[in-house]
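Work package 3, deliverable 3.1, input record:
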Amino acid sequence: MRSLFFTLLLLLPTVALAVPTAQPAMLPLGTGADANAVGTARMVGAMLEYTRWPTARPVVRLCLAGNARHAGRLADISLSNGAQLQLSSLNGPAAARSEGCDALYIGRLDAAPMQGLIAGTRGQPVLTITEDDPDCRSGAIFCLLYAPQTLSFQLNIDAVSRSAVRIDPRVLRLSKGGY
Amino acid sequence: MSAPIDKILPTLGQVLARAHMRLILFAVLMAGVTLTVTGVLVIRGYADRNLALIAHSVAYTVEPALIFDDMDAARSGIAAVAASESVHRVDVRAPDGRELATWRRPGGGIMTMIEGGIANLVAPSPAIVDVRRSGRLIARVSVHGGAEGLGRFILSGLATAIACLVLTLIATWTLARRLQRDVTDPLGRIADVAHAVRANRQFDRRAPHSDIREVDQLGRDFNALLEELNDWHSGVLSHNRMLEQQATRDALTGLGNRAMFERALPATIAQADALNLPFAIVYLDVNRFKPVNDTYGHDAGDAMLIVIAARLRAGLRSGDQAFRLGGDEFALILAPGVGPEELDAVKARIADGMRQPIMLPGGESVDGSLSIGSARYPQDSADARDLLRHADAAMYAAKGRRAGSRE
């Protein structure tokens, strides 16, 4: 009985990482004109929930880059820890820089500027999410994957290790392909 | 007398076996109940904590899946945590009570149901844990079951108790047999000897040795007591024989007395009837006893009677009996099978034997002749009293004839 107790204690942190039956998160998309936008907002909110910056952010600055098609409802996100969300667009001259951003939502963008943008976040406490990178080769931390009825994501573990932000390990399990 | 007592009273072995049975039963029950209750309490404590821990695990695992609104992931997370544990059911509900995800263990065997039922009796409550995200309630996890170990413990405790009881029975039985062999049987043998002595006067029986000191001591003392009892009994017997002899024998002549004659007559009648043979009685009276007594004294009379008695005895066949009825009167009972000729021959032989004068202690010789009268059974009479009267009359007739012939 006692050994069971200890086993469970040991099990607790590894459960999220080691569960073999992991499935990718399949967020069901609702119906309606902006179903994708609502789903995107919800998923981005969840990603922000499980992201830890080196210092707590009372205001999370979410920057939008490129041509984002589903970012229409991102303003609806409310975080459970009470942090405010501040949306801004990276356009024009600042388009290739991510200073002043805690999170980066990247829409459709050419490969070169996207990689430049993401390379700029290396070692920085910036969460990167791409909307239009189904193969997840851009080096972003999260890549959103749109399917007709569902929305899922892929987590790039290399990007996580290169970044200064920390992602809750339990989220790995929800990522497409699993870890 | 002893049969109903045997039925009602238990034997020593039964009493001892019952006492041992109760003692061992009590010990086993006490130990079993104490161990089981303590074990149940301890295991219940662990089971409660285990269940709470599982609930916490489930809550921790499903939290991101709930945030990402992915119930399949939530279910697989629950299954991953709960499947390897003794959990029946896991429910995840939204704060408003809406079911978000649920997991049930695939049906187990009947033993699992029994164990679960027993466990629910002892530790029924599910563990409930809230899933919170930064203090905000997201969902509530309730975990049911988780106490199969308890049920298994109780079941195995019961099985052990039953096994112990069976062992107890065997132990008691063995013990009872050993007691029977070591204690009850030696005591029973002593009791048998006592019974044999009491019922059949078998004073030669002795209690055997025993391996138990007290029982052996009892046997020895009993044997010593028997020895004394035997001596005492034989003393009483010889004394009785002496008394009987005194009561039935004439002290002077050694012949049977009147009391013995009165006992011997009906016995001989019964014997004659049984054999369907005739017999006879003879009355004899000493003719010159009174003059001898008066002339030479009582010692001379006694000496005369002793000689006459000896001569009478010499004239008898085997089986015939001689009695001195008192004074100078004698009687004979001739054993069944005697005919009239033989009777006459016996009478003649006796009369013949008395013809020789008797020498008295003082040197004088006197005539020892007798008057003899006889009666035959059943020819003269089939009644004892009548037979005696007949013989008496015949004797007096003989005396009269003698007196007549003298004059």
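Chain B has eleven helices and ten strands.
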